[in-house]
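User: quick one, sequence for these tokens?
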């Protein structure tokens, strides 16, 4: 839910004005976010935990998600914002926000 809110706010800042386009962006996120989580979970089951490997896999998967979302955006959105730019910025913002939240939760647990 937080990812949807962050990406909607950023999309509006990037000049996505159509409610239809904002809903489509949310729908794409509802497809790709669980997919990423599932793939990371499956990866964790099939490998010995190594923080470096985890980050490499996470970043590689995020890049693949950005590319996939960009192709979807190109096909379904009416906005003038370039699809790859939109996908990259939305994912960077939601990823960064997630890192900040994770860090804050870790700090409160100490």
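Assistant:
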């Amino acid at each position: 839910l937080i990812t949807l809110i962050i990406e909607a706010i950023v999309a509006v800042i990037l000049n996505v004005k159509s409610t239809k386009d904002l809903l489509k962006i949310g729908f794409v996120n509802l497809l790709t976010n669980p997919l990423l989580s599932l793939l990371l979970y499956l990866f964790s089951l099939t490998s010995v935990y190594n923080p470096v490997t985890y980050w490499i896999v996470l970043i590689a998967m995020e890049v693949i998600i950005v590319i996939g979302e960009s192709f979807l955006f190109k096909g379904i959105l009416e906005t003038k914002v370039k699809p790859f730019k939109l996908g990259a910025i939305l994912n960077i913002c939601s990823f960064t926000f997630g890192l900040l939240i994770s860090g804050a939760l870790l700090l409160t647990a100490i």
